[in-house]
């Protein structure tokens, strides 16, 4: 699967963002180990703290559809002049499902920058700290 396809899917997912309060749409697209693409967008709420980011919407949807093994995620927002990373909460939620997947920060023109959880979330708290060395995260 070409990265360009994953990027395109996250750009399309952004169109569905429900963000009447921030007017800041975000899209995410996750590539599973089996080759499926699962997308998400941010979903805001009048009780602002209940807002869910695009990345977490995508993760929750993916898990609910039976996926737990992921190889990449692409994320995009409307900021044109720089690459924007996932918020801290989303970094932690991504880590739950492994530290090895690729993260593509993308812009509306389809350009992207590859990064990783090791870079975005150094010295993490992980399942390994709860005595679960069997789980996906490698530190
Ligand atoms: N947002 C995301 O969807 N992902 C992030 O990683 C950062 C922020 C959303 C949440 C909210 O709906 C809007 O962007 C402004 O914070």
From TrEMBL:
Coiled coil: none annotated. This is Cytidine deaminase. Zn(2+) binds at residues 53, 87, 90. One of its GO terms (cellular component) is cytosol. Belongs to the cytidine and deoxycytidylate deaminase family. PANTHER family: CYTIDINE DEAMINASE (PTHR11644:SF26). PROSITE patterns: CYT_DCMP_DEAMINASES_1, CYT_DCMP_DEAMINASES_2. This enzyme scavenges exogenous and endogenous cytidine and 2'-deoxycytidine for UMP synthesis. Pfam families: dCMP_cyt_deam_1. Residues 1-128 form the CMP/dCMP-type deaminase domain. GO terms for biological process: nucleobase-containing small molecule metabolic process; pyrimidine-containing compound metabolic process. The keyword Hydrolase applies. It catalyses: cytidine + H2O + H(+) = uridine + NH4(+); 2'-deoxycytidine + H2O + H(+) = 2'-deoxyuridine + NH4(+). It is an enzyme of class 3 (hydrolase). Keywords: Hydrolase, Metal-binding, Zinc. The active site is at 55 (proton donor). Gene3D superfamilies: Cytidine Deaminase, domain 2 (3.40.140.10). Its EC number is 3.5.4.5. It comes from the Eukaryota. Its cofactor is Zn(2+). One of its GO terms (molecular function) is cytidine deaminase activity.
């Amino acid at each position: 699967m070409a990265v360009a396809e994953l990027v395109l899917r996250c750009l399309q997912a952004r169109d569905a963002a429900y963000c009447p309060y921030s007017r800041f749409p975000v899209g995410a697209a996750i590539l599973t180990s089996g080759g499926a693409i699962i997308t998400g967008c941010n979903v805001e709420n009048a009780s602002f703290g209940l807002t869910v980011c695009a990345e977490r919407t995508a993760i929750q949807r993916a898990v609910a559809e039976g996926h737990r093994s992921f190889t990449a995620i692409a994320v995009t927002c409307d900021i044109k002049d720089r690459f924007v990373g996932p918020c801290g909460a989303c970094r932690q939620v991504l880590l739950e499902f492994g530290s090895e997947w690729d993260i593509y920060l993308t812009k509306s023109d389809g350009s992207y920058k590859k990064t990783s959880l090791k870079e975005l979330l150094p010295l993490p708290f992980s399942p390994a700290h709860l005595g679960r060395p069997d789980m996906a995260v490698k530190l």
